[in-house]
Structure formats: C-alpha cells, structure tokens
Amino acid sequence: MKRHDFYYDLPEELIAQVPLKDRTASRLMVLDRRKDSVEHKTFHNVIDYLNKGDTLVLNDTRVLPARLHGLKEETGSAIEFLLLKRMNHTDWEILVRPGKKAREGAKFRFGGDILSAEIIKVLENGNRIARFAFEGVFEEVLDRLGEMPLPPYIHEKLEDKERYQTVYAKYEGSAAAPTAGLHFTNELLDEIRKKGINVVFVTLHVGLGTFRPVKTENIEEHQMHQEYYIMTGETADIINRTKQAGNRVIGVGTTSCRVLETVADEKGRVRQQSGYTGIYIYPSYRFKILDGLITNFHLPESSLIMLVSALAGYEKTMKAYEIAIKEKYRFFSFGDAMLII
Fold first, then answer.
1. pLDDT (tens digit, 9 = 90+) per residue, 202-223?
2. φ and ψ at residue 324, rounded to 5 degrees
3. If you count Cβ atoms within 10 Å of the first and of the last residue's Cβ in the chain, which end, N or C, has fewer?
4. Would you say the pTM of this structure is higher than 0.90?
5. For the residues of 192-257, what is the DSSP string, one character each?
C-alpha cells in the first residue's frame, strides 16, 4: 500500500488543544468489526462493551517533563533542550534548539544555578549527548524546571502537567503520553474491576519517533523507531489465562498493542520479558493476541493509523475517520477515543 492511501483532510479546528476537565467525558466511537457498525457514545460507556473475564492492558509509563529552557554560559543566549534518552546517571541524548549554539564543549545553565550541562558529543543525526551537573535527585530537579514535551500540533499552554499523564502513570521514561489512557479515571477503573474485568499493566516508554511521519511512498519500506518495554510475569500469567478461557485481551493504546504483539508467540502466549521493540504493524499484519483496542484518532499518513487499519480493516478505518470528521470528533492527543471490537 502507498502512504497516501492513509491521508485524510482534517480541519484544524478539530485538533484538540486542551484536555477536558472530566477525563471520561470525551466522546467514544465504537467500531464493531463483525457487525460492521459505528456507534457514538461517551467514554464512560466503554465499560458496557467489556465483558466479565476480559483483560484490559494499559501502559503505565510516565512522561518526563523533558523540555528545558536555559541560557548559554558564554553569551547568555536562550537555548532549549529536549531530553530523549538517558545514557547513565548524568548523561542524556537530547535535541537542541537552536543547534548551532550547542557545539561540543558548550556549557549551559537552567534555573539559575540549579542545573548545568555541557555538550560532550554531537551525534551524526544532529542530536547531542549532554552531561548534567546537579545537587540531589535529577528527576526532582527536572520536575521543578522542566515542561511537558507536548506534541507540535498543540499550541495552547498546559495549565496542569498531570493532565498529560495517565492516572496510573508510574515509571518515568516517556517523551510523550500514551494518550488513549488519558480518558480513564481511578473511579472508572474501579468500576471495570468490579465488573470482573482484569486490569493489568505493561510499560513502554514512548519516544518522539511516535510523531515521526511515514516518509516512504511504499509503506513497507518505513523504518520504525525503537522503544523500551517491560512485560512482567504477573501480567503475562493473567493474559495467558484470559486467552485460555476464551476471553478477550483489549489493549489501551497503540503502545500497549505493540508490547503485546512483540512478546506474543505464534500460539498467542506471552511471557515475562523486556527489551527494545521496533515492531511495525500495518495492513496484512496477522495479530497474535490482540482482540480489541481503545485508541485516539491519529495523524494522517502515520504509522499509528496504519496500525489501526491493520486491526479494524483499511476500508472500515478510513470510513470511521470520515464519520469522525463529519461528526466533529476531537482529534489527536487531547481528543476523543475509538473502541475497536
């Protein structure tokens, strides 16, 4: 298939700029593949489509406030760092703007004297390795000084940093939120558990590559980015028991889907493991374990809309997006959700 097959024209006013006050008040499009039907609900209604014995798989990664604004020591000129990947206790791979100010040996300060950094290496792809100096715990310093690395299509300031975190976010390491999970509250999760539905967690640290568009005309030639994941033994056992009992495994977000399909064998069994995944799911992919998916509406020509098309079917997916635009659903990170069953 060609990249342009996944293009759709989205009016800019449908790109959600701020989150709703009530996480569960987002709209929910329910796409039933067997019935070939589309229903329009609110997100709280998701519980009506989950059955006793099903397992809901959520990604408990936590977004780092990874955008830092500082000054170059030598000149006092402004600089912006975006933390991408931790190398060790003091060193991070970063994106820098403007890059010409961040040559090897350049030094910077953030928050006065709270945090300083030196560029120790310039990478071939233009990223840098920065060595930070600080007192105390780096994550606490970052929480004081850093901003949430919101996607480039969001232009409004986020008033509450926790609204770009899921309520169950636990392990820091992401440059972007697993946004399908933003619709859940602890109260809704409790209701789901009381109905006899398993709620389990995997971890996948979302990289900025999630926003990288597919640039190859033939989609099969696209190279996916690598992201670190963890599947625990406890979660694996519950998922395996769910499948053995003939019940459904439903992923919350494309990140949870990618972990499940990475660790599943050809018999649809999973096991405890961790590592990096570059799994690329597009139409013709045969799912090994996933039975359903809760997801947001994704960018045109992105690997994420291709993943959704692989599960729901290309024609059904593009038709659903056409309906979503007509019905004025809110799109992308702070937007509305879709349930595919």
1. 999 998 777 778 999 999 999 9
2. -60, -40
3. N
4. yes
5. HHHTT-EEEEEEE---GGGGPPP--SBGGGPPPPPEEEEE-HHHHHHHHHHHHTT--EEEEHHHHH
